[in-house]
Amino acid sequence: MLLISCPNCGSRDETEFHYGGQAHVPYPENPNDMNDREWAEFLFYRDNTKGTFAERWLHSTGCRQWFNMLRDTVTYDIQAVYPMGTPRPDAAVRDAAAPATPDSGTASTAPDSTTTGSAAPSTSATSISPTSTASSTTQSGTTAPEGATK
Ligand code: ZN
Hints:
single chain
């Protein structure tokens, strides 16, 4: 059973949602110019990705709104939830905790990583980012040199 995070309602059970197929399949600009094969491929042919796949979901028993989701078709790991009409987010972000935290995390940790670049490797910077609070990153930044001097 999946726990799906609706952008409007929060985390809800999988049974409240309906699968809507592959995302980012635009309607053809000139359908009358397409031959039968091209039209059939638009209607029926979809990617069968093994791994990260962008797909549409409908919160049918909740807010009744459509949204997009990045899901790993092997592990069922939900990597991102984002509104309809927005481009597919970077699939390299494997952190399934929250798609919004990397923006604030990288912005706040970027100055710290330059000052304490020798003390803190890049792996610790990625482990700090899920906390997503500016105060915790500054506190950890001040405590790291003290521990290094001791
Ligand atoms: Zn909803």
